[in-house]
Amino acid sequence: MIAKKYTPDLGDVVSLDFIPSEETNTSEANPQEAKDIKPKQRLAVVLSPITYNKASGLCVCVPITSQIRDYPFEVPITLKTKMMILADQIKSVDFAQRNATPITKIHISKIYQIKKLLASLLGLQFALN
């Protein structure tokens, strides 16, 4: 039986594999070192709809951090502990390559908060419809 591949959807909290940037720079200079680097798991909130994600193989997301800094683009979220969604650090990632794993789904009100902050940052109009 073939396992169904997971495709993230809007509002999903996912765990993604990331390699720290300082290690990435080292591995580019020496490909052998790249084999020895273990990816780190990071949480993110998916902002793109499943239709886009399926068609492109990518998902647009923002990271979640446990470091709380009272930064204007932080959106609070409680998972196992209080954490912050970093609304201004938007990324597009290949979810299969990053081994996206579903964790939970956030309430639509949090999505609205993130989108309002992004709209403000980019100088866009955002209406809650």
Automatic annotation (TrEMBL):
GO annotation (BP), single:
rRNA catabolic process
Record Gene3D superfamilies: 2.30.30.110
Q: What SUPFAM superfamilies does its record include?
A: Cell growth inhibitor/plasmid maintenance toxic component
Matching Pfam families: PemK_toxin
The GO terms describing molecular function are:
DNA binding; RNA endonuclease activity
Q: What is this protein called?
A: mRNA interferase
- What organism is listed for this UniProt entry? Helicobacter macacae MIT 99-5501
